[in-house]
Amino acid sequence: MNILIVDDDSTDVRFLQELLTEAGAGSSRLVHVENLRTALQRLQEELFDIVLLDFFLPGSQGPESIHCLREQTPDVPIVFVTGLNDEDLGRQMIKSGAQGYLVKGQIEGAALLRTLHDIIAQHRAQHS
Asked: Whole-structure pTM over 0.90, yes or no?
């Protein structure tokens, strides 16, 4: 599984990487970028199975970021990741085009890996 992590907080990125490694995603390829512009460039250059997108990015946030990614790569599922435990916000991000959302600090490795696999499978089924 090729995962693009778009997050400007290196501590959060390391946490996600550790969770995925502990959950057995050792064969997965994790690519980290710090902003939306770089994410859009990487998505043009490489194929990714899923994007983990932080809510607050330099120069872009939430629905705006999802819209930009969705416009360029409609075939790659996006999982919105936030530190805010707000279900209304999560629903808003899904309405904006994300396939799911995760709350930082409430993520467990095995559940994260299962969730990512499920979202990828559902997205592929809907777009095939």
From this structure: yes
* Confidence check: pLDDT of 27 > 80: no
Which of the 8 DSSP states describes residue 108? -
CA dist 108 and 20 (Å) reads 9
Taking residue 118's Cβ as centre, other Cβ atoms within 10 Å add up to 12
> 83-107 in b/e burial notation, b at 16+ Cβ within 10 A?
eeeeeebbebbeebbbbbbbbbeee
Phi-psi region of 105 (alpha: psi -120 to 50; beta: other; left: phi over 0): left
Is residue 80 a contact partner of residue 88, using CB atoms and an 8 Å limit?
no
